[in-house]
Amino acid sequence: MRRKYLWIGVLGLAIISALSCTEAQQPSSERQPRDLLAPSPFQPQPSPVGRAKGLGYFGKLQRPDGGVSTEISIGVGFDGKETEIPSLVPTLNKDEIDYLLTSKLNSDMWKTPTGKIIVGKAVEHAKKRMAEGKSPFAEEGEQYQQPSQVAEPSKPRACIIDIDGTIANDQQRRALSINPDGSRNWRKYFDPELVKKDKPILKSREVLRWVEQKGVKIFYVSSRESTILEATKWWLKTHNFPQGEVYHRKPFGRSLEYKIDTVRTIQKSYDVIFGVGDREGDITAYQTCGIAAIKVKESSEEDWVRVKNEIAKLIK
Q1: Which CATH class is domain 157-314?
Q2: pLDDT (tens digit per residue) in 42-75
Q3: CA-CA distance, 246 to 265, in Å (whole number)?
Q4: Among candidates 110, 150, 140, 80, which has minimal Cα distance to 19?
Q5: Best CA proximity match to 12, nearest among 244, 287, 215, 240
Q6: Has residue 105 got a pLDDT over 90?
Q7: CB-CB neighbours of 239 under 10 Å
């Protein structure tokens, strides 16, 4: 069986090699090669020397077309090196496993919100195993229950919402915090009194109220410094945003690491479905944690219409 690889972006890494199509097998002894066409401008890359296929983490899973899948490998970049990992990993829920088994096996399957979540989970699972000195692939005796027996997540649903530029228009505060040399005066930018004067993005409030009505708990996770936490809570209450826990980073803390750590902490108690933010750092943090990442245009009212449509696909 021949394989082709595509290059796709995953989790904020510069350019990561990706999709090895699949080990889907035909019901007869004759296997059909599946060659994917890479979207422009990327070209298919030959697979490195292949490894013998194992049973994967769930054994042989039946596909609707009569074939079976065990691993559905993808290629990702770790430290600049292409590494083959399975996408059928034990951290997936039943719906995600069903998605892999019923989707047409081509590059488009990874472009959907569910596909992106699966890639994120596969990468995190592989990183954890490799850090422990293990192969990202299942070894003998590591098989789990069949997907039909995998329990649905019992945790309550939740989402992560950024604040500055996402639900709060901070453009005036940004303008007032510029030094004469053009640098940012962060002390002034994080002035509690200026924070209280931020204008709310009204469409975001409307959408978040709708999200709350759908039974999804909201967590406001911002890279604002913790020194203005009370000012943020005052602002959210004053502008009638839905109630939710508010997280700010410690002064001088690294924004990306803080967001990743915070989301992972929340994930211990909640099934975090998606995150919304206006910065690439937000998107990288969400994808690293394996949740759907929705980027909204900075301080935009209109773009929240699109964001709502994206959210609707995730919380049916």
Answers
A1: alpha beta
A2: 322 333 445 567 888 988 888 887 788 889 988 8
A3: 13
A4: 110
A5: 287
A6: no
A7: 15
Q: Which long-range contacts (CB under 8 A, 24 or more apart) does 86-90 make?
A: 86/56, 86/57, 86/122, 86/126, 86/136, 86/137, 86/138, 87/118, 87/119, 87/122, 88/56, 88/57, 88/58, 88/61, 89/57, 89/121, 89/122, 89/125, 89/126, 90/57, 90/58, 90/125, 90/144
* pLDDT digit string, tens, across residues 213-227: 999 999 999 999 999
**pLDDT of 32 higher than 60:** no
CA atoms within 13 A on the CB side of 193: 2
For the chain, domain boundaries: 4-149, 157-314
- The amino acid sitting at 93 is N
Cβ atoms of 147 and 58 closer than 8 Å: yes
Distances (CA, A) of 255 to 47, 168, 296: 36, 18, 18
The answer on pLDDT for 201 being more than 80 is: yes
- Amino acid at position 244, single letter: G
> pTM for the full model?
0.59
242 within 8 A of 204, measured Cβ to Cβ: no
